[in-house]
## 1
Amino acid sequence: MHYKRFPLGALWTNGYLFWDDGGEAFFVDPGGEAAEVLDFVKEQNLKLRKVLLTHGHLDHFAGLHSLEPVVGNEIYVGHGDARRLREPARALQDLLGIQCEPIAGFHEVREGDVLRVGEMEIHVMETPGHTEGGVCYLIGDGDEKLLASGDTLFAQSVGRTDLEGGDQAVLEASLRRLAGLPDSLSVLPGHGPETSIGTERKRNPYWPDGGANADRLV
């Protein structure tokens, strides 16, 4: 499995392109105009099959218009955030200076769903708190695994909960779920640098008490 980070949009949101050895590819969180993503896909002779969203904030899907002609309705978002695609928040559009048309053609995902692109399997973990429908994607290709955490977990921080739909207690419960993941698992967050579960267990001030003893998920 291969991946490349693309900081996109007004907030330089981390978008990630994943692909396998056969060139089958998907993209996570196109936060802004994605022409450079499409250029890379073409240069590398990749086949872009799906777009996955970790949640429904505009800075994570404003670039969908660039990729939708390629993937069609193969767009996936947590069921709790589907309304955010159908009715993009006007206040956030005004704040970021971005006009975003509603998205109609997409699929809603839930806890335990498994998506497949080529040799890669993508397991959906519902991790609300930053938004009602936030999800993380546990991505695997053989023995190699990565976690795309969106705005649930950052390097030494977590997603804010003071926006509409945020809930601190719910986010803490989601973090306790992530505490069951192995220390060696690399984490690709929606903003900021990459990290790992083990690093966050040691250094993140928001890490849940007792997380080190949580049941292991993988």
## 2
Amino acid sequence: MSEEKTYEKKDKYISEVKKPKASEMELKEHLVYVGRVAKVVKGGRRFSFSAIVVVGDGNGTVGHGLGKASEVTNAISKGTDDAKKNLVKVSILGNTIPHEVIAKHSATRVLLRPAAPGTGVIAGGAMRAVLESVGVKDVLCKVLGSSNPHNVVKATIKALQMLRNVNTIAEHRGITPSKVLKG
């Protein structure tokens, strides 16, 4: 799988981030939210639709997109195309996440906690779509603050991007993964 390379500056490290390509993987889409807006014109009301779509391969890759159109189906297809352009790779550990994380976007804060096998995805609608798309099967979640679907999706993806596995931490510290686990 060939991936496009981009560089991202975090803290004092400049890390190489490999961007996944949508054309090379099989993505499943989840419709998170469809909104209807009415514009009042001379002859009555003119309706327009917006759709938030989340796509993922179920194996650590996820993306979100927003599409707007005068028809629902067109809005969904535009949202899907936008989501395929915004794919990110996240670190998952088996069927759960490696550690607890809290992320914030606008007025929304989300809390994600790893769970024991068999727990399932304990999360609300917008957050559930993101977690199922990325392939997490056991996780405990809570939305704190605003429950606006736009912000919940963005905060959840930000939280998933903050996750780091043992190998990544060991690489940044310049030690072996076994030394990271010892403390």
## 3
Amino acid sequence: MAAPMSVYGVENLIFLILDNPDLAVRFRDAILNSILGIARVLDEEAGHTPEAAPHGWGWADDNCALLTPEMYELFGYPILKGVFDRYCPDAKHSRHQHSDSAMSHLLPLLGKLNFTGTNFGPTVTVSEIREHLPNAVIDGQLAPFTLCRNEEENIVAEFLRDFDQAREKRGLRFSTAGSINNGSRLTGMRLIMAAIQRYGRYE
């Protein structure tokens, strides 16, 4: 989890979960309660009641990829579920996860949270995401370094790969898997749009 690891340290959090899971659970619950408390205050200041407050939530969390599924189920998953249960309890509400890291090992767990949108790292394939997150719109999966290096042939090849993997269930917005890196060219963006326009149509 990005915030806890920023506060406590990456290695420290991993060791805490392994060595003292009871204390890790207390830390987890403190984070969840703090998020919900801050969100409640923001809602109140905006004039929203719990019943009328806007619904939807998105996470930007790269470091969660460093946890094993068992660690994530203990620590990260309950935080996401607790927030989602409060702010996006219905299937129609937006539930988004950005994590431009190697997230494949956590997809089975994330699949239980009914995400409606994802933006994962370039090593996570459209097929893998769709297998576990059938209702999510997939933002990606162009590798940012492919774009910033202006590898024109690979840009088109990655689009064709993802377009084909999304054929059965659709729901792909072709974009970079993570941030757009320095050095990315406007010509690369134009190439992406041209490839989508020429090849991005299902019969």
